[in-house]
């Protein structure tokens, strides 16, 4: 600082704050019209920090374990006369664990100007012969047969270490191995020189070979229908071991041109002696090609008899429907009608109630019998094909009689059930109609006008109700029994908002001033099960368009906000399931029921809730939600024996059990490698590593070296270990590479 008396003005040859070169610079300051003075500014040349001591001799220590030892080296200091204390980093730092062998330590001191000084020395850990090195247990050489048509195949193997140390195998277990080649697998423990090897041979795929090759046999008949012949062919496979040999017909079979034992009741020579006459047993029919008796799953008319194939049971399902099943072939075999087949067969029973196995049962007039209608096709009835009274006629589907029409004999069946059971309740009849209308118009954006949609809906419902409520015995329909579902106007999806109020209109009158638009209307009618469907022709005539029954075979689409719930509780607990919704291409929405339902008490452990969406045609789709209730842990002194579970069980009114946990945590890293460029060793923040556990929910993770450590130039493996409360652990390796110039 330059100061003058009496506040006199002055000038200096170099102003304060100027940039001065290295060396001595003389500054002269002059008072205006008066005295002058000089002083020297000395700028020292930049110098890097200086280590103290200047060097450290190599350090030699004995190992404290089979892997190495933690080494603390002498205190190292660095000074900088001009910049103050520099930043000092050594890698590896003092106190680190050093593996057996030589490790170079690099220390770098950096001052505020960025000038640095490096010092290096070596730490040698001498192996202690009393410690046993960790080792690997390798599998025996592996030989497998390759997959046909493939060039490689995955091979898994098990290598174990005698201690908790990281090791690497190349190729790894689960990797792809070339077919028709022998590959050497090499494994080594990190930081140890020993290499372990075994061979994996993948042979080319070859089929088994009969040894000896079978030859034709000529034997004399030893029974009326032929001969019982025994044989035992053998085969070998050099790669896969002894193969399974199956013969058809099997050795020792009783010959029969009519099929298997039990498939026929008689098998006799014909009059000419060159053929056989077969009489098939119940539940079997002659094959059209071979004429032998085979199991028959088709449903055919037959003369009544007190036999097992004519014994059926009716299983109540949902929505006043029944499954018709028989135990003749299989206890889970039920009557099934496919949408596109038009006939009835037996098929394995669907435990969730497939719509093609569920039937509405209506009593025929005068209690002469019943008709059966599939849920997916409620206007169709099961019938004897061609109304034939002949034994063997197949069963098919045909149109049910319409309301007040006569029921044909081909559709009437005698069923062992109570008429009162099957006549109560309602069913849903789905229909479609495509018509031209001027009652609906489009907005400027091309969407159907909402007011016109509501007006059309009101008039259309009134029209359907008035036409189908006419006639003797017809039900009285109203807005509540008719719903408009999936529909379009001029090919644009239209929402009729069927929840709005119902206003009566006498007629759907066309407006001649508005253009006619095509409207494809889907609608459903709630109809009594006891009554046959209404006549579509009557409604078609009034609408000037064809009204058709809708055959709906499309399943709803079910969506849950999440597919799992996880809670902690001492005992079983009531659980609210996540929201589950369902959409449908015809009914728009479908109700969803869950088993167990939301709000139920779920036990400790994992329970699967099955949620089922069911549309009006019986089509369903399910979604599963996993509900897991986890227990609790107690921190307890090692010196004391465990507490009494029975005391807590009594208070909780539930059984408290010790948890035996043998499941490893699941470890996840955001990335499995880090690559940086640096002229020197550098501190590295490892990627985020987390661990989840099936019982403890989370598990702490520790990494060696830890995140933030100084990593040397080159490649280093950081091993991160997750350890749960029961001692189960899992490790994950992260590769850290520092690339210099």
UniProtKB/TrEMBL annotation:
Keywords: Repeat. The keyword Repeat applies. Coiled coil: none annotated. Residues 41-127 form the HYR domain. It comes from the Eukaryota. The keyword Repeat applies. InterPro entries: HYR_dom (IPR003410), Ricin_B-like_lectins (IPR035992). This is HYR domain-containing protein. The lineage of its organism: Eukaryota, Viridiplantae, Chlorophyta, core chlorophytes, Chlorophyceae.
């Amino acid at each position: 600082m330059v100061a003058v008396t009496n506040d006199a003005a002055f000038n200096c040859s170099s102003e304060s704050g100027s940039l001065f070169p290295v060396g001595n610079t003389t500054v002269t300051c002059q008072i205006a019209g008066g005295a002058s003075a000089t002083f020297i500014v000395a700028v020292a040349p930049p110098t890097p920090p200086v280590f103290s001591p200047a060097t450290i001799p190599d350090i030699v220590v004995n190992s404290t374990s089979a892997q190495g030892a933690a080494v603390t080296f002498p205190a190292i200091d660095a000074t900088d006369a001009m910049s103050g204390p520099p930043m000092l980093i050594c890698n590896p730092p003092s106190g680190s664990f050093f593996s057996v062998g030589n490790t170079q330590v690099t220390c770098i001191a950096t001052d505020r100007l960025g000038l640095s000084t490096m010092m290096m020395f070596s730490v040698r850990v001498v192996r202690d012969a009393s410690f046993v090195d960790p080792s690997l247990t390798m599998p025996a050489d592996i030989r497998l047969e390759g997959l046909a048509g493939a060039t490689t195949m995955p091979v898994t193997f098990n290598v174990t270490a005698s201690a908790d140390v990281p090791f690497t195998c190349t190729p790894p277990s689960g990797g792809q191995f070339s077919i028709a080649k022998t590959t050497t697998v090499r494994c080594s423990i990190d930081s140890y020189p020993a290499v372990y090897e075994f061979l994996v041979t993948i042979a080319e795929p070859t089929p088994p070979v009969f040894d000896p090759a079978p030859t034709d046999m000529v034997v004399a008949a030893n029974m009326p229908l032929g001969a019982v012949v025994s044989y035992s062919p053998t085969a070998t496979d050099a790669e896969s071991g002894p193969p399974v040999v199956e013969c058809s017909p099997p050795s020792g079979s009783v010959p029969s041109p009519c099929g298997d034992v039990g498939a026929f009741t008689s098998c006799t020579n014909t009059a000419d002696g060159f053929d056989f006459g077969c009489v098939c047993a119940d539940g079997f029919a002659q094959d059209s090609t071979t004429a032998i008796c085979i199991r028959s799953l088709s449903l055919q008319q037959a003369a009544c008899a007190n036999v097992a194939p004519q014994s059926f049971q009716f299983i109540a399902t949902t929505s006043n429907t029944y499954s018709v099943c028989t135990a003749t072939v299989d206890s889970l075999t039920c009557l099934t009608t496919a949408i596109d087949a038009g006939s009835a067969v037996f098929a394995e029973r669907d435990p969730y109630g497939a719509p093609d196995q569920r039937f509405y049962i209506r009593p025929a007039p005068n209690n002469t019998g019943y008709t059966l209608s599939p849920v997916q096709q409620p206007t169709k009835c099961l019938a004897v094909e061609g109304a034939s009274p002949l034994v063997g006629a197949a069963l098919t589907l045909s149109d049910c009689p319409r309301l007040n029409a006569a029921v044909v004999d081909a559709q009437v069946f005698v069923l062992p059930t109570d008429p009162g059971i099957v006549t109560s309740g309602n069913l849903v009849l789905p229909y479609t109609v495509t018509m031209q209308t001027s009652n609906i118009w489009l907005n400027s954006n091309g969407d159907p006008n909402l007011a016109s949609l509501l007006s059309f809906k009101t008039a259309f419902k009134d029209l359907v109700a008035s036409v189908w409520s006419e006639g003797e015995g017809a039900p009285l329909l109203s807005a509540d029994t008719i719903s408009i579902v999936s529909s379009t106007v001029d090919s644009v999806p239209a929402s009729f908002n069927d929840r709005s109020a119902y206003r009566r209109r006498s007629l759907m009158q066309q407006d001649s001033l508005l253009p006619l638009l095509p409207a494809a209307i889907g609608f459903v009618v709630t109809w009594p099960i006891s009554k046959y469907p209404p006549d579509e022709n009557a409604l078609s005539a009034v609408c000037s368009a064809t009204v058709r029954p809708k055959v709906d075979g499309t399943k709803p689409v079910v969506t849950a906000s999440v597919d799992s719930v996880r809670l902690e509780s001492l005992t079983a607990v009531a659980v609210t399931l996540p929201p589950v919704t369902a959409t449908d291409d015809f009914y728009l929405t479908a109700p969803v029921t869950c088993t167990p339902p939301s709000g139920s008490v779920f036990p400790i452990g994992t329970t699967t809730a099955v949620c089922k969406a069911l549309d009006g045609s019986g089509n369903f789709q399910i979604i599963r939600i996993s509900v897991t209730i986890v227990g609790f842990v107690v921190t307890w002194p090692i010196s004391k024996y465990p507490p009494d579970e029975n005391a807590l069980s009594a208070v909780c009114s539930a059984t408290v059990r010790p948890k035996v946990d043998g499941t490893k945590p699941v470890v996840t890293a955001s990335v499995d490698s880090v690559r940086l460029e640096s002229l020197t060793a550098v501190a590295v923040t490892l990627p985020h590593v987390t661990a989840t556990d099936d019982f403890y929910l989370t598990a702490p993770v520790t990494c060696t070296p830890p995140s933030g450590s100084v990593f040397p130039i080159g490649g280093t493996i950081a091993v991160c270990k997750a350890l749960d409360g029961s001692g189960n652990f899992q490790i994950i390796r992260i590769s850290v590479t520092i690339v210099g110039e």
